Automatic annotation (TrEMBL):
Transmembrane spans: 277-300
Keywords of the record: Membrane, Signal, Transmembrane, Transmembrane helix
Protein species of origin: Caenorhabditis brenneri (Nematode worm)
Protein name in UniProt: Uncharacterized protein
Residues of the signal peptide: 1-28
Amino acid sequence: MRKLPEIMFPVIVLITFVLLQATPASTSETVIFDRILSDHSIGFDILYVLSQAIHENKSIIMDLNADNPLMYRIKKCGRVLLFTHDAVKEQQVIFGTDWIAWMFTLSGQKCSEYEVTNQLYLDVLTDKLTSGVVTFHVADHLSITRMENSLYQNNIPYYLNSSAHETNVFISTLTPLISKVLSSSFLNIHLICDLTSPAKIQFSKCGLVVSNPLYVRGIESVILKNSDLESISRVSQLQCTSDFSQSRFEIRVTTFNRAGGAFALKIVDDTTVAEEAFYIGFVALAFMFLVACCCCVCTCTNSCCFKKKRVLTNEYLETFAMKPLDDRCDTCGESVDAPHHAK
């Protein structure tokens, strides 16, 4: 007769297997690094966490804890998605709907046939032996009070007086209007700069910067591309303990030399600009046409007047022309053909 433990063991294994199959995957993902130095890259997969957040219409919270200050960047296929601008030991960032959808799409992309699918990469940069942990987990959305349209800073100038290589940070509340610009084929956002030095401009929030900085020559107007506007919209959705709003973002301006001046973000309706250009061009063409007509009329008039004057002169000469001197009488002044009177 078989002993009870021998009978129960297969049953316990079977029950454990069934429970593991029935238990859903964890809605969190943890990335651990231990005693790393310099630049260290770690691959991680949060595709399931992202899909759960999308399915449940929730946010994702990223928690970072380390024993020494560090900087980090998150990448996909060598492309930097975001990075810290200062070293941190602790950080909590909440990713909203647009971020989650974007990272879900990127996670599923395969960079090459040799890459493990769904991998993102965390690059940790530190100058000391550092250990820490980064956790991604699903959480409920935070309720946010939207700002009124009157508070949107459209075409509001920002003034700066900066030393060389100094970074100045400004707050913009233009975010709610960006979606309107993205959905329109006529609206654009212009970055208008009047600075005394070339500068680098980046967009950030909660200590994180989106990639692809803009470089301006100093006095310049730059039309922001859709990719720039999408990056600004995403970064403005980041939430943290220092800023729970989803309607603003930071503009970081780093001048290469000591500089002063101002810059602004302005929404421009291209239809209005096109109409103004059309009317200006039309008036210019009309003016040129009138000038050409006047020149033509004057030329023709002068030519006709000259011909008429020449005809009249010829007629006058023919009518009132003096007779040839050879036929005149040198002594009496009378024509030789005139009759002689008797004395």
